[in-house]
Amino acid sequence: MLVAVTALTGAFVGGPSPPRRITLATGQRGGAYDTFGGLYAARLGRVGLRTDVVQSSGSLDNLRRLLRGEVDVAFAQGGTSSLVADPESRLRGIAALYLEPLWVFYREDLAVRSLSDLAGRQISVGLPASGTEAVATMLLREHGIDPAQPTIVRLANPAADEQLVRGTLQAAFFVTSYRDSLVTDLLARPKIRLLSFHRETAYTRKFPALAPVKIPEGLLDLRRNLPAADTTLLAPAALLACRSDLHPRVVEQILKVAQAIHSSGSLIDPPLRFPSRDGVDLPLHEAAEIYLTQGESFVSRTLPYGLLRWTPLLRVLLVSLILWIPVVRFLPEVLGWRVNRRFSRLYSGLRHAEHRLEAAHDADELRARLADLDRLALEARPLCSKLPAGRQHDVYNWRVHVAFVRSQAAARLAALEDETSQRPT
Fold first, then answer.
1. 243-276: per-residue pLDDT in tens?
2. How confident is the model at residue 406 (pLDDT cuts 50, 70, 90)?
3. Which of 217, 235, 253 represents a domain boundary (last residue)?
4. Using CA atoms, how far apart are residues 308 and 391, in angstroms rounded to an integer?
5. Residues forming beta bridges with residue 51, ordered by sequence position
6. Is residue 14 part of a domain?
7. Bridge partners of 91?
8. d(CA 103, CA 233)
9. Residues 219 and 341 reside in one and the same domain
10. Which residues, including other chains, have CB under 8 Å from residue 132's CB and lie 6 or more apart?
11. Based on the domain organization, do 346 and 247 belong to the same domain?
12. Half-sphere exposure of 389 (CA within 13 A, CB side)
C-alpha cells in the first residue's frame, strides 16, 4: 500500500519519464529541412534520444501531422500556422532557427520587375500544403493573381527546377535555404533570373512574418559571382514546432542541438541571433520559453539524457524519504498511544469493578459484580489478540490484575457463603 501511494505521489510530482524516441517531420527529399533533419537526428542520437526522420510535402503538411499526432516535432515556416485550423489548441513553437528566403526565379525573356508581371504565366508555387505554396499564393493574391487558375501548378522543387530550365515553366517559387544546391544551380543558369523585391518595407508591413534579406553581389559564390547583382529577398523564419505535451527535457535537448547548429550564423544570418523566440508565430512551449530567456535547466545541464529518464524515479525516492520516514518514525508511537489509551480505559473499568465488588453487601450482589468483571475481561479479548508480540507483556499484566481482583472477590464470596451456611436455620 505504501509503495502504491508513493508511486502515485511521485508520478504526480515528477510527471512521465522523457521518451527514448521521437519522430521529426522535415520536408522534401534533399531540401534544407531534410538536410537539417539528418543533422538533428545524428546529434540527438548521440545523447541517447533516437529520432526518426519523416519526409513530407512541407510546412503545412508538417503542422497537420503534428495536430494528428503522427509526429512529435516538425520543421515549419513562419507565418503558416494561421492556415491550419485552430493550431493554438495543441501546437507550440520551440524556436526560430534561421531565415529562409523566398526565391522567385523566372525566364530571362520575361520582363519581370514585380510579381504582377507574372499574370497569365506558367508558374510553380511548390507542393500542396507546403510553406512555399502558402507564401506564394498569399503574395500572388496581393498582386491580383488567382492562385487557382490553371497556369498555376504545384510541383516539388526538383521538378520545378527541371521544367523551369527546360522552358515548360516561366517562373517558380522556392522557399529554401541559400545552402540548397537548387539555388546556386539556378543562379548559374544563363537564361534564368532571380527577382529582387524593390518595395521590401511595404511587403514586411503587410506580411509581418516576412523579413527583408539583402544578398550582396557575389555573396553565395565569389568565383562565379552569384548572384550577379545586389538582390533583396523576403524571408520567413524556419521554425521548429511541436505539440504542447512534448516532454520538457526533449525540448531542452532539441534546443541544445539547435544552438550548436545555428548559433554561429551564416551568410545571411548574423552570429548568435538563432535559435530565437523572435519570429515564432506559435505560442512557445513552456520549456522553450524558459530555455530561451533563462538558459538551460540545472537538471538538464548537470545530467546526461540517459540519466534524465530516471529523474522521476529519483523524485519518487525523494517523496518516500520526505513522506514515509516521519510516518515510520511516529507511527509506532501513535499506535502505542492508541493501545495505551485502550488499556487505560480497561484499567479504569477494572478499578470501577473492584470498587463495586468491595461495596457488595451479600453473596448475591457479589456474584453479580463478579459477572460484570468477567464481562469486562471478555471485552478485552479482541484487543489482546491483535497486539503484536512486543506488547504481549501488557496483555499478561492485564490478565494478572484481573485474576488478582477476581481471586480477592472469590475469596470474599467463599467466606460469605461459609458464614451463611453456618448460621442456624
1. 999 999 899 999 999 999 999 999 999 998 999 9
2. confident
3. 235
4. 47
5. 22
6. no
7. 243
8. 7
9. no
10. 58, 102, 125, 126, 173, 174, 175, 176
11. no
12. 0
Domain end residue (candidates: 309, 341, 357): 309
CA distance 3 to 365: 57
Q: What is the number of domains present in the chain? A: 3
Please enumerate, as own/partner, the contacts of 281-284 that have beta carbons within 8 Å and a separation of 24 or more: 281/78, 281/79, 281/81, 281/82, 281/93, 281/209, 281/239, 282/81, 282/87, 282/88, 282/91, 282/92, 282/93, 282/239, 282/241, 283/88, 283/91, 283/92, 283/93, 284/92, 284/93, 284/94
Distance CA 219, CA 184 (A): 11
- Is 379 among the domain residues? yes
Distance in angstroms (rounded) separating the CA atoms of residues 151 and 283: 37
* Cα separation, 335 vs 346, whole angstroms: 17
Helix, strand, or coil (residue 264): coil
Upper half-sphere CA count for residue 377 (Cβ side, 13 Å): 18
**DSSP string for 328-342:** HHHHHHHHHHHHHHH
Question: What distance in Å separates the CA atoms of residue 281 and residue 291, rounded to the nearest whole number?
Answer: 18
Q: Kindly report, residue by residue over 296-352, the tens digit of the pLDDT.
A: 876 667 777 765 655 655 566 566 666 666 666 666 666 667 777 777 887 888 788
Residue 117 exposed, middle or buried by CB count within 10 Å (0-12, 13-18, 19+):
middle
| Block residue for cell numbers 451456611 | 421
| The residue type at 68 | R
Helix intervals (H) in 281-391: 286-294, 298-302, 305-308, 311-359, 363-379, 381-386
Strand partners, 73: 24, 242
Q: Which of these, 106, 64, 97, 101, lies nearest to 81 by C-alpha position? A: 64
Boundaries of domain holding 323: 316-421
Overall pTM > 0.70: no
Q: 211 and 125 in one domain?
A: yes
Do the strands 91-99 and 73-77 form a parallel or antiparallel pair, or are they unpaired? unpaired
Amino acid (1-letter code) at residue 93:
G
- Alpha-helical (H) ranges within 207-310 are 248-262, 286-294, 298-302, 305-308
> pLDDT band at 121, cuts 50/70/90?
very high
Torsion angles phi and psi, residue 23, rounded to 5: -120, 130
**C-alpha grid cell for residue 109?**
525573356
CA dist., res. 216 & res. 207, Å (int): 23
